[in-house]
Amino acid sequence: xxxxxxxxxxxxxxxxxxxxxxxxxxxxxxxxxxxxxxxxxxxxxxxxxxxxxxxxxxxxxxxxxxxxxxxxxxxxxxxxxxxxxxxxxxxxxxxxxxxxxxxxxxxxxxxxxxxxxxxxxxxxxxxxxxxxxxxxxxxxxxxxxxxxxxxxxxxxxxxxxxxxxxxxxxxxxxxxxxxxxxxxxxxxxxxxxxxxxxxxxxxxxxxxxxxxxxxxxxxxxxxxxxxxxxxxxxxxxxxxxxxxxxxxxxxxxxxxxxxxxxx
Length: 263
What we know:
This protein is an alpha/beta fold. It folds into 2 domains: 7-183 and 220-245, Rossmann fold; 185-217, no CATH class. It has helices spanning 16-27, 39-49, 66-78, 101-128, 149-173, 188-196, 220-231, and strands at residues 7-10, 31-36, 54-58, 83-86, 132-136, 176-182, 242-245. The longest helix has 28 residues, at 101-128. It is globular and about 55 Å long. This is Short-chain dehydrogenase. It holds the Pfam family adh_short_C2. Belongs to the short-chain dehydrogenases/reductases (SDR) family.
């Protein structure tokens, strides 16, 4: 029970990585504020982990004052707030030709500005308990894919936010801020996206070694397991760190022999 009695907000926790994080937090003894866009999915997660362990808030994270409402819900329902997991994100394809100002602003609002605003709203409560923030980024933060331009830009911004606040908030208020950058993860939405791209129902069962040296891609539960350390007291004073979670190095990788692409 590495998170016993901690109260944690997990944004975007009705599916995929966020859902896995919320479930693992509860399994480790925490109480969780669930968040997402779809009410029926939130209720499903709530039923699965138990209403005594969580409360659900349905709202677009980029809506005005949503961060304040999430913090208030945590305090009103559980009496305190120990940690924030900024997981909610809009994964959307775009490139230099079709990314206009309004679209880029919307992606940034959801993926970078909203996490900042939630941290800002949570500061007074986190400071009381010397709490922590865990931002869920992406390996695309390092440069990204050409067809994920706006998304990649937003994750780069989030990574800079993590490093900046990880220093200043630890020094000034004892609040740790860290980030994990998941690689290719087999979420429900990823399965849907690849099917929409014309791949088969079982596309993930036969992947090129270039993209999946282990023969499979990551599972949400594996990302969630890594989150426990950063949310627990075991992390001590470590702050301002960004850790990639992928099955090959992002920098200095061996030159590929197979240039075929699926990802």
